[in-house]
């Protein structure tokens, strides 16, 4: 064939391909064939993994928790005690008072005796000792452990109920009592616990033989106990005795109990209750809300109920009334089956058994578990036995197939990263990939950088625990036209490598350095948070050591970013986006298929619980997160990312021309809201699934790991490995971007500026060295953060970090671009004032984190503008030789 004909034929084929891939056949595209081959391998790996998993695997559905009971030496009372006061005093378990029938059971004519003895058990010696006596014999009160000792509230003796309250403490080995203000009324059989820094007591009765139980509720501030008791809104239901108290997330719960009604013989009779109530403390408001009824009545269960993890409390047995009327001697004992309540789905589930069920006995958190000292085993029969309950997560089994899938993914990404910039030996290639990145790859890289593992884990957790409230943060898309029409041309004309070069041209080198340092500090904090997320996931659901996870992910990112530069970052971002979105879509389909009723079932459950936008308040109350606050705060927080953050601005400079960069920004703006909708939908699906199957969620689980938990325990092996790989992918995309952008900022803003004689090769080596140092620092930060305690929501933590740094940097850019009178002195004053203001509202918790960006920008611009008036105006319009935006 004629050479021209052959060329024409190839051109037609390539034109057809360009319609699919959005690019023209060129030497640049031919050079990227290697990356396209890698992407094909990744897609094939995803499909093959799924096919093998569906064909050969089944989900894991074993019980997620182990419930262990340990016997502690019995108290030195052969009969045992009902209704004792129990708590922790000076590191020892104290049990005082109580009542029993020491001579004979009541049906044989035995008399009930109240006691004043106090027994103390030390975990060091493993023995009980006599620790003293109560001020008087008493039982059936409320005992609450605080730092100073044990607070004993109310109770009764053989003659009457009491309103007395006292603090029991150990002073030099001797028990001492401190009198506290009395209750407004005498109470026995009440339920109470510590909620924050206040003791809350509810229900009970005021005198023996009373015909109606109390519905009144009282609280006292333990830091201001001298102010006495405050009466809270009464329970909006019948009064009750022997209910179970609980506390969770700063709320008070009152569960079950028995109402008292007069029978035909004029004697009070118990009415067993299944009601459960929640008291919410919201500022000065105190509101009762009814939660899901118990599956069975619960009376006199050990109280307060053990709170397990952030979202569960457990009812340990109790009396369900099923043996009412049975002769005491024929009584089979109380209920052994425990119940767990899940605060997110408002559901009850059965939760293991207790080997020796007891009632009318307190529960004491002690030694990593909960101790139940003595108690009543049958009506009128006590037991001296002491039991300790421990609830733990069952060791997960990640499986060989999951491990293989995960390892293959890590190898694929590593190879793509290492080879992506093979032959690149200049800083231009390391920082801007030679400006030869296709627009679609740059757009996917922006998308992967901004969403990361924070999206993959925390957004489903938000959708699961709260609803779609934070989907409102997609209001940031109003910025996209401004970015494309204003900021993108601005940066392309400047032809900078670091975004902060502009600040020196506009103001001074000191302003440039301040912004650059702030950016690098922000990115280092971001690396630590994003590294920690997948490590927590794997530690929680797959049993992998947290340290190993952090180190493996971190080192892999450091190596391929150091060798591959920006090209490696972008092409691994593309691979990671495919894995992340493919895994998320697979998970969503799996969840829909697992919920009874499918999409309709999920919709109905979410609608019934008002789980979409029902919990977001629409007001301008700056102290809480409202809908308006999210909409406004998102715009200002994201202004930094799209206009002044080096990691994103750097993407604008990796394409061949401005039009390609604009298309890259546009594809990110299209993908981000759609991806977030999918992740919120996953969270809603998880809410529906665990509403239908509450017993399949780990009660110790933190919200941020609910999606990985579902992945490993409910999805087939192999697919679970794919989705854990997607978590890795989401993390690595952000970490590699942060590493490269920090290296770019350091070399361009500092090394190159301070050492203008350095050659390009030496600067490249410095950039690679910075990548390694920052990566190791990020790994160390993640390990420290992982050991520093629970973080309620890592996504909110990340947004707070973003607001703390982003507002000040954005403010300096806006000041320079839009305020012609601004000068260097004003910019410095504005940045200092902005940083101080944002830190102040963070430290004193004046506003929530959604306001950080707005406050930072506003203070910087306003203070910077005013301060500039105190100094000479810059020469010319913006200063001599300054690059200005041409409107």
Q: What are the key terms here?
A:
single chain; 887 residues; alpha+beta; four-stranded antiparallel β-sheet; 20 helices; 30 strands; disordered N terminus; disordered C terminus
- Termini separation comes to 54 Å
Our count of helices gives 20
Spatial shape: elongated
**What's the β-strand tally?**
30
Helix content: 40-55%
Chain oligomer state: single chain
Share in β-strands: 15-25%
Sheet/helix structural class: alpha+beta
What are the low-pLDDT stretches, counting only 5+ consecutive residues below 50?
1-31, 53-61, 877-887
Short description:
The protein is an alpha+beta fold and 887 residues long. Helix content is 46%, strand content 17%.
Structure description:
- α4 packs parallel to α16 (719-754).
- This protein is an alpha+beta fold.
- It contains 20 helices and 30 strands.
- 52% of the residues are buried.
- β2 (85-89) and β3 form a beta hairpin.
- It is 46% helix and 17% strand.
- Strands 1-30-27-26 form a four-stranded antiparallel beta sheet, with no helix packed on it.
- The longest helix is centred in the middle third of the chain and has 49 residues, at 546-594.
